[in-house]
């Protein structure tokens, strides 16, 4: 009976115990993506060393969208809004990754639903982060919030495949 319980998955032993959930690996990827590509060092490098006229340079600059400063730079330049946007992106993406149960509602459970669930969660999180970050920032306006939501959703659409791919690394 003990062998049956272990093989039935009641314990955490075996191959499933070595991997986290799809939401957990996706959240880790969000943290890394925002921490690395939103850092002042990366943002400065992308602005100074990439060609915005090339597809590769444009994409590398796009990855810097959730730029954060946390004490760097002039507060009058919207630093609070960008910091808030980066924080909201991580929090909302983590929440949406956990709330979107792809494997439970998908007709074809497995890696395809995990990928699209992670990607979709990141698109929604980036759009909402742009919207809320502007509305809760120092100079809120509806037009600026809608423009930020559009920029965030575009960023999420083009960078969300990274989170979707990372979601493949976990179990449902």
List the SSEs and their pairings.
Layout: H1 2-7, H2 22-37, H3 40-49, H4 55-62, H5 79-99, H6 102-105, H7 111-135, H8 142-167
Helix pairs in contact: 2-5, 2-8, 5-7, 7-8
Radius of gyration: 19 Å
Main beta sheet strand tally, sense and closure: none
Proportion of beta-strand residues: under 5%
Ranges where pLDDT stays below 50 over 5 or more residues in a row are 1-18
SSE topology string: HHHHHHHH
Give the count of helical stretches. Answer: 8
How far do the termini sit from each other?
Answer: 26 Å
What class would the helix/strand composition place it in? mainly alpha
| Coarse morphology | globular
Keywords: Membrane, Transmembrane, Transmembrane helix
Provide tags for this entry.
172 residues; 67% helix; disordered N terminus
Describe this structure in words.
With 172 residues, the chain is mostly helical. It has a domain at 20-35 and 77-167. The chain has eight helices and no strands. Helix 2 crosses helix 8, helix 5 runs antiparallel to helix 7 and helix 7 (111-135) runs antiparallel to helix 8 (142-167). It is globular, with a radius of gyration of 19 Å.
């Amino acid at each position: 009976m003990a062998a049956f319980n272990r093989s039935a998955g009641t314990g955490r032993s075996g191959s499933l115990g070595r991997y986290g959930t799809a939401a957990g690996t996706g959240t880790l990827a969000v943290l890394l993506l925002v921490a690395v590509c939103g850092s002042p060092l990366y943002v400065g490098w992308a602005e100074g060393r990439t060609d915005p006229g090339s597809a590769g340079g444009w994409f590398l600059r796009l990855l810097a969208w959730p730029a954060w400063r946390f004490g760097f730079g002039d507060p009058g330049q919207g630093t609070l809004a960008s910091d808030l946007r980066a924080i909201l992106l991580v929090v909302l993406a983590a929440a949406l990754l956990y709330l979107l149960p792809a494997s439970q509602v998908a007709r074809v459970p497995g890696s395809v639903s995990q990928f699209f669930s992670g990607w979709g969660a990141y698109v929604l999180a980036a759009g909402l982060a742009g919207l809320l970050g502007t509305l809760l920032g120092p100079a809120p306006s509806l037009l600026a919030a809608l423009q930020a939501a559009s920029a965030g959703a575009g960023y999420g659409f083009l960078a969300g495949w990274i989170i979707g791919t990372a979601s493949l690394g976990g179990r449902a």
